[in-house]
Each structure stands twice: as C-alpha cells, then as structure tokens.
Write a structure and sequence with these properties.
The complex is a heterodimer of chains A (416) and B (211). Chain A has 416 residues and is of the alpha+beta class. Chain A has two domains: 310 residues, Bira Bifunctional Protein, Domain 2 (BirA Bifunctional Protein, domain 2, 2-Layer Sandwich); 79 residues, Anticodon-binding domain (Rossmann fold, 3-Layer(aba) Sandwich). Chain A is built from 14 helices and 17 strands. Chain A has a nine-stranded mixed sheet, with helices on both faces. Chain A has a five-stranded mixed sheet with strand order 14-13-15-16-17, sandwiched between helices. In chain A, helix 1 crosses helix 11. The longest helix of chain A has 20 residues. The N and C termini of chain A lie far apart (57 Å). With 211 residues, chain B is of the alpha/beta class. Chain B folds into two domains: 118 residues, 3-Layer(aba) Sandwich (D-Maltodextrin-Binding Protein, domain 2), CATH 3.40.190.10; 86 residues, Periplasmic binding protein-like II (D-Maltodextrin-Binding Protein, domain 2). In chain B, 33% of the residues lie in helices and 30% in strands. In chain B, the strands form two sheets. In chain B, strands 2-3-1-4-11-5 form a six-stranded mixed sheet. Classes of the chains: A alpha+beta (416), B alpha/beta (211). Chains A and B meet through helix 7 and strand 8 of A and strand 5 and helix 8 of B.
Chain lengths: 416, 211
Amino acid sequence: MSMNNIPQGVQDILVEECLLKRKIENDIMKVFRSFGYGEIITPTYEYYDVFKGTSNVFNDEMLLKFFDEEGKILALRPDLTTPIARVCATKLGGETLPIRLCYTGNAYRFIQGNFGPKQREFTQSGIELIGAGGAKADAEVIACTIYALLEAGLEDFQIELGHSAFFEGIIEKGDFTKGQIDELKDMIDKKYQFGIMEFIEKNEIAGESREILSKITTLFGDVDIVHEVLNYDINQRSKEALLYLLEVYNLLKDYCLDKYISFDLGLVQNIDYYTGIIFKGFARGFGFPICGGGRYDNLIKKFGKDMPATGVAIGIDRVMSAIFSKKEALPKLNVDALVFAESDSYKTAFEVCRILRRDNLVIKMDITSNSIEEAKEYAKKCGIGGIFYCRNKDEIVAIDLVNNTQQATNINSLKE
Amino acid sequence: MKSITFALAKGRLSDISIGIFEKLGYDVSQMKEKSRKLIFYDEKNKIKFILVKASDVPTYVEYQAADIGIVGYDTILEEGRHVYEMLNLNFGNCKMCVCGRPEMKDSFYKIHNLKVATKYPNIAKEFFEKEKKMGAEIIKLNGSVELAPLTGLSEVIVDIVESGKTLVENGLCVFEEICDISARLIVNRVSLKMERERINDIVEKIKGVII
C-alpha cells in the first residue's frame, strides 16, 4: 500500500519551513511588484503541445503527462515562462508595450539521470519583460533579480552572464556538422579543455576559431575577461555579443550592482529557447544555480505574435537551501497570547480575541483546557508568553507567564 | 577563508594523487601514514582532503561536499554527474573493454539478448543499445567480474583493462575497446565560479606538475 507514502520527488513542507518559504516568496514578489511587474496566474496543466511544440527544452521523458476526457494529452507545466509566452501572444495583444509580468508557482518535471537536485515539484518565482529588446530590458531583469535575492536574505552570490551568439560566432565559419557542434558544446559545457584540444587537432581547425576554442574553457571571471577577448581575432557576431554584454554590464554599474556580476563566455545553451544574453545565479554554500534567465526573442512567435522578451526564474527551494547553508535557524511560528475562558464567559473571550487580532496580534483560543492551571501548562508547552483569562463576563486577568505577574483588566481598556 | 575540499578516490588512484599534492607542496604526511582516517587537513594551505569510494567522488563534487575531485573517467561516465571535467591527469591509464572467452570473440554480437556482466551498467547499456544497437541484458556485479563468463553467468563482461594480466590469467580476452580511461580532475560548477582565483591557481599548478 502506498497510502502512507508520497511519490518520489515531491515533498510536504511543514510549518516552520513553510513560514520561511512564504517569507522568501513574499520578499521576492515584493521586489518584483516594486519594479512595476504585475502578477499573473496560469493553469497548473496545459495541452502537451504548448510545451512540446515550442522549443527543445522539454523532452518527452521530462513532462508529466495525462489525458483529458477526449483523449487529448495534457502536461503539468515544466516551467512558467512558456505559459506566459502563450498568454502574451493570445490574450495581451492590446497592451502598451513593454509588458511586465511576475509569477510564483510550482513547476513539474521528471528529473532524469543521476545529476542535480531531485525535486520533481518545485517552486519558481520570476519575471518576464515582454515587448522590449535591448540592453536596458536585460539589465532591468538582472538588477531586479539581484534586489530580489538580497531581499530574500542572500548576500554572497554572483550573477554570471554569457551570450549565446558568442559561441555561434566562433563556429560560424567552420564547416561543422551538427554532431560535431554538439560534441564541442558538450566539452565546452564541461570545461574539458583537453578534449577540445583533441577536437581542434583532429578536425584541423585553424585561424581565429582555433585560438579562441583553445582558450574557451578559461574565459570566465570579472569584466576584464570581456575586454581581453575583444582584443582577440574574433568575427563580427562574437564581437557584437561581447559588446552587448558590456552594454548590460555598464547599465548594471549605473545601478551600482556590478559587484554581483561576473562572466562566463563558455556558457553554451543546448536549448533553442534563449537567443541572446543568458545568465545564472550562484550562492556560496550551495552547489547548484539558484536562478537562471535570459533573452528569448523567438518563443512568443511560436504562439503567433512576434515579440522580443527577457526574463528570469528564481528557484525558491534552492534559495531556501542556500539560506539553510548559512546555518540560520528556521523562523518560529509566533503566538502572542492564549485566551482561556470559564464556561459562562465565551462571549467575552471571543470579543477579547477579536479586539487583539484586529491589532495584528496572533491569538490562540484555548479549546481543550478544563482549568486555568491546565491552560498555563498548555501555554508553557507551546512557548506562549501570556494568557488572557476570562474569569466571568466582566472580569479579565492578563497573566504574564514570563515574569509571573498578573493584572486585572476589562473589555473597554483592551479596546484602547 | 574557507578550505578548498578535495575528494580523492580510494584505491588505485589515491597514491598517485597524493604524489601530485606532495609536488604542489601540500602537507600530505597524515595521508601517507596508513590509517583509517578519512579526512585530512593542510591548515597552512587551507586544504581539506577526503577519501571516498571512487564511484562516490563525482557525487561529492556535484553536491559541493567537495570542491574538486580526482577520479577515473570510467566513474565519471558511469555516474553521469553535472560537474566540470577540467583536466586529463594522464595517469591511471587503461581502457574500457568488452571481454569474454576467446571462442566467443567472433560470434558474441550475434547472440540475441546478450548477457553482459559489469560494474558499469550505464556504460554497458549505452554501448550496446546506442552504439551497437543490440538488445543486451545488463547484469550488475560489484567485483570479480571475470568470473561471470567462466561460470556461465554471462557471455561477456564490460570492464576496465589495465595490463590485461587478470584477463589472461582467467583465460579471457578483449573483444572490443569502448573508450580510453584516465584520471580526471573534476570541479563543482559553483565552486569554480565562487572560488575562481584559488581553484584556477590549483588547476594551473596541477597542470604544471603532470606535464
């Protein structure tokens, strides 16, 4: 029987951890909203074609699929960007551009293979900036990401920028087969310099591509690396990619956020989703990226409207792990006071609760104790510091369990 | 300053790895004493070494329990972890091979549902299914793989072959080479970026002593 278990890759998030999760989500969304991004909610599942027909990001094994009553294939959303692209193309035609949207929601993937965190249900918060091309849009998304991570409580992190056109520029002139390009991309992705050197020798690559490929695994670091590579013999396409990165960097410098920025020119994408700048975020103490994003100018076109777009998705579960790694204690569920009433004074007790809760206090009503002594025991066990004891209709005693004092009061003085 | 943690594969690669660290000037005296300890520190250079089972090295590195690992390419292929594979250290060289009893050499590929015993089920599956387009029943073993064809457990084995001595002694031979294997330096993807200067420096120094 699997009645008492949960499937692999999903999780119950219990009270204290849930408090932290919601706090992080709220902190991040607050930043997104302060930049003028409006929240939207899209369905948890959609037609399979929405995800399968638009990019090569999501393969069949990755999608959680099922059928509707007509036999059409449905899929739980593997990300939230694709549904938002669909919404933009089909429902937001008349809006003034650019459109700024944000979201928090769960995404679902069968995680394949051996590597990486194994969550199959995970929460992402993100923004999409639609209908604006250019460095100002990308810089805004990155700046907004940095502010959001700071607000969520991370300090020691880096956003690493790359550009998909840089690699495309390098291989543009070479007469490579798709298989060779995939092999090369894989080695660049693994920073396997030895293999790339072998590849260069085997395929007799000469000229500009040779120089840059032989160094590509080392082309990461601060902004100096971009300036350095600009001096290399690279073609126009690669050069434009680097100049674009510098343009975004200079804007981030004006935001005074350049200390969070680094570069990896060996960031290659095996997915056809991204068309320009790409970026990933890393936090010290957590071994996987905490966020990722970039420009995806061709995605919305697949749904019938040609609009440039850029965005980011922050992995909430990963941010939580990064915060855990700082060994911070989980937040505690705070209860300000307990209310206990003798059996003839519930009306008074409920009034006391209402008045105190109106002042944003967290008040628990004692519904199990049979005497004030039992109520005190219960409060101590739960770590609640005070009790409002409704002795009868008019008489209320405020008991301070921390300092062991008590004071008589009544409804009218509580109201004040 | 946080220590940089190295995960080293226990067994055939660890002695050579320790030799490399010695050349780099790290304090490896504790590691050379044969003890049962699994964690060693070089306080001066802020380096921590952990000794783990070879097949666990990529796991430690992927999850950043170690920043850098030294492990055979056979393990990397088998585990398929998401790490940077920065250097070919060019020691521990051997080959991943399909082996079996000599009389099977020319006919093994004709057997439908060929039984393959191996410590490397992923590599074997990939090779027979993707490259050979053969149906194969992969039987995972944890050691003494050479026994499998001799006892009739399987027709062939997939294993690393260093000198070939073990094969010969057990009356087996190599049917086909799958790929070259050597020790590799792997690095966690976040560590390389967050500790760029220190790890780059270590990688360059190691490059210097192995070539």
